[in-house]
Known about the structure:
Structural class: alpha+beta
Number of strands: 23
Helix content: 25-40%
Strand order of the largest sheet: 13-19-18-17-16-15-14-23-22
Mean pLDDT: 94
Distance between the termini: 25 Å
Amino acid sequence: MNAPQALSDYAHLVQTDRIHGSIYTDPAIFEQEMARIFHRGWLCLGHEAEIPQPGDFRATTLGRQPVLMVRGDDGQVRVFMNRCRHRGMTLCEDETGNEKFLRCWYHGWVYRNTGELEDVPLANAYGAQFRREDFGLTPVPRMESYRGFVFASLAPTGQSLLEHLGLARRYLDIFLDASPTGEIDVTAGVHRTRYRGNWKFVGMDGYHPHYTHRSVMDSWKRRPGGGMANLHHGDPFCDESGNLTRDAGNGHVLLDMFPSRLAHVDEYLAGIRKRPGGEDYIAAMQEAHGPQRARELLAWAGDPHVGIYPNLQLIGIQIRIIRPLAVDDTEVLMFPALLKDVPPSINEMRLRQHESFYGPAGAGAPDDAEIFERNQQGLGATVEPWVYLARGLERERQDTDGSIIGMPGDETTQRGQLREWKRMMSEA
């Protein structure tokens, strides 16, 4: 059982209770991931709120291909290949900015921020058959959005975005509906981390907090905390917490901490009421959603802790985008999302909570990056190459909505992600 079979035998590499370590270390498998997952499926590029003004753009990648998410002068958000139609040079070198026109630095072709070719220097040399309308910026083959989350695919055909999101749509709603108007502001900037490890290590592991984040867990037990921490009294990752790991299908998984959050929501709301405008925020949520739904949404605090396969995660207040660079090199972009139409004290609380765990000097995220690097190093030992992922396998069950659930520390989430990984990698 030690030796892998053919590279393409993904049914052998990903089994029910174990996976072959080569899926984290083999450069050839990484190349196939780029082709079959990142250049074929839906990827999240970000949220429209990152580019609120006409002309705002963000240059990013779709898999390995450079793309440009831009809001045109007509207010519409579009995604173009970041490539001049003349010689193929990238148009936007800066990662973000605001431009009415996009000018190629090589030969001066100029495009409107809506994609049309505006000007070609010395165009008389191209002859009568040359038509500017034939040389606008190239849109990505498919683009759809869900409540402002922009997704794109390099494949011209395939399942719709709604089919892809499936049960996970409700968790995008939870992230947004922490605002009484359902709107967010994603202009606070981004911080990023880069680690020497595989992209599949990131997120949705309820087994590791007791060990990797032991100091944080101990602090939650010792003192009541404040702000959003009021929702995490005790130990949310123990079996007795009532919390769950959840496989929502299509690779979308979450650490479902709603049960323990709801148990502590009154303590959280008491803290909110002490903040300037806090009572107004609670009242606005109740008016927008009704008392029962508002109480549920306040308990969630806009934190579904969900991974939308393969590259989006909504954790805490952040929109997290995973960017694989090589089989052992990954960049993670974290965009703090502020809530619109809430008192400033609420967003201040959310930002401080984000910084305390996920910031560069935070108590959590730097430890995760360190662990991922050590995991990559350990997988270099191939005498026994299998990774065991059977925790909770025999006690998984199906919830009423069709998702598969397990206890907080069960590896239900990893199995769900890798099940989708195997499906996508096995498609010709």
